[in-house]
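Example record

The entry below shows one chain as it appears in the dataset: sequence first, then structure tokens.
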Amino acid sequence: MSATAMSGESSSSSATAAEEETAACCDCCGLVEECTPAYEARVRERYGGRWICGLCGEAVEEELLRSAPISADEALARHATFCRAFRSAAPPAPLDNADHLIAALRHLLRRSLDSPRLVRSTPSSPGRPTRTNNRAAASSSSAAALARSESCFTTLAG
């Protein structure tokens, strides 16, 4: 099949899928995801009528592997209990989960940008071996490239 025919089919099927998406709320953590009714039905079938997001599904699978032989319902009940305890211990969530997620990522990014960086005198990975005179020429050209002779604001204003 040609690439244009395949792309035409995929774009029409994606347009149909986008029209059918519904919002589903996780029964454990409360995260709202957009998904198709077919996907939602498969997840509900897998977890006994409860809709579980992907992250909670992974946690339930991990609980099944980690614990003594227990049923999927027991692992799901343990994870749901953990989520309820975590949500009750946390400060009240904002009205929109997306806003809370964005605020948490903003906090993480600011914290990582504000943390001091380790300054190394040598590179962490070895470079290509070069001759001494090529290395001197390369270091002088990189220093010249980084040197600034005047402010760029006067150029922009004029």
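Notes for this example: Confidence is low (pLDDT under 50) at residues 1-10. The longest strand covers residues 22-25.
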